[in-house]
Known about the structure:
The chain is of the alpha+beta class. It folds into three domains: 13-115, Phosphorylase Kinase, domain 1 (2-Layer Sandwich); 122-329, Transferase(Phosphotransferase) domain 1 (Transferase(Phosphotransferase), domain 1, Orthogonal Bundle), CATH 1.10.510; 335-507, Sandwich (Immunoglobulin-like). It is built from eleven helices and 22 strands. It has helices at 17-23, 62-75, 122-127, 135-153, 218-234, 247-263, 271-288, 299-306, 318-329, 439-443, 465-484; strands spanning 13-14, 30-33, 37-43, 49-55, 84-98, 101-115, 160-161, 170-172, 178-180, 187-188, 195-196, 215-216, 335-338, 341-345, 353-363, 368-377, 381-385, 388-391, 396-405, 419-427, 451-460, 490-492. The termini are far apart. 37% of the residues are buried.
Amino acid sequence: MNGDYCSSSSRPHKLPLHYLMKITNNFSEVLGTGGVGVVYKGVQSDGVIVAVKKLLHSMPNSLEQFENEIDLLMRLEHPNIVRLIGYCYNIQKQHVPYKGEHVFAEESEILLCLEYMPNGSLDRFLSDPDSRVDWHTRYKIIEGICNGLEHLHEQTDGPIIHLDLKPANILLSDAFVPKITDFGLSRLLDPRETMCTMMVRGTLGYMPPEFIQGILTSKSDIFSLGVIIMEVVTGQRNYLEDATISSEEFIELELQKWRNMLQQAPGYTMQEIDCPQIKRCIEIGIICMNPLRAERPTITKVIKMLRGQDDTDGDVSNDVMSSAFQIRSGPTELLYIYPNELSFSLEPGRRNRNIRCLVRLMNVTDKCVAFHFKATRASNNYCIEPADGFMWPFATTNVVVTMEELGELLPSDLQCNDEFLVQSIVVKEHRVTSEHIPEDKFNMMPSNKVHRVNLSIVHVPPNQATSQEQVQHSEARLDALQSEGPQKVCFSKWSGAASGLTSSNQLKQYNSKVIDI
């Protein structure tokens, strides 16, 4: 083998650690950071630049994600998927002090060597207000992402679902060719099955609503794709500023912005071709963000619509637009809460006792989060377990709200004005304990540091099928949780341990800006 182990023509192969240290100048120049690693710039002896991604051992589940990424990238080869050049999995025994003695402990170095993308991520492009990328380039980006996603979903041994598709995970070559990257959370899915899991991670704003229920399918990526398409077309993240706007009005407003911009280009004569294409892309984006996953198209259908081979008429509704706005806005930046309307199945004219509703909280950040759950307006008696606690990064916890007894006979119209408030803040890891969190801690924080979500209460009659099914599902899930024992996904008055973490030291190297409570 020649002096450079990285070859553009060879299959991914093992690379020595000393070689990666040499080409990165001992990991001196950082290109960026990801969920479980830092990316460094490497320069080979022939001047070819590569990207070297190094695992951060301090992150929870980082080893599992890194190994998963290597496994998937080894089998993937497509112009719109970042190419894996090689990997390094180096394990050594180190003599280290431990409890007053010296012991031998394993120390591992895990790295990926990837092709270098000089234009960085799509996220950087969208964040740059001075970015003046023409429509043809934007369309090429959208088309390339779709082609890469089709390659993932159409694997012969089952679809690979990315599960964290977002602009930060789309890299751009010098010719603005998009390449999907960061497969740490991705899964190989049996084509005949829908995957259900309690360990769901992703990025708020790009996660479909079924994520909070732990449901994973290839349609999960389609929702994320829809968000990306809308951001590429509009050139901004906050493209939905008005929740009441109809889909027709939104499309026309965006089209008018593009007409004004295109007309300013000297010698431009392709408006009759480009504007229908722009309209079609917006419609596809809205269709992909349908909150009902069964109504979202497959990636094959998306590509056909993109090329004008399949019609989009009739699929763009105001209901989908409104729902997409609510999902994109997100209930909070720290916690994803489901449901945000608590349903209690009651019988008018009778006293109803001990009716339970299950609320799931998901920490969607890579930081420790403290929460407090309380009734702010209540004519009835409620018991909330747990009412407060700490949550590790990406952890999920379940809160049981029990209506102990109605304060008065239920009115015949089932009207209820009761309301709950969930407050959450970021906390330093060393502050995580099993003690209660006083509400005063949240009240004393600056208002811009506390995220608040109001949850409403609805009373539904037993014969209302959909609501009754939801209550039965919550009851069944609650019974299962109680049979499993205390939940171990957060520190609270219900639990005193954290799932997946053996000690608080595993979070020591977080560099996030957090609040000290």
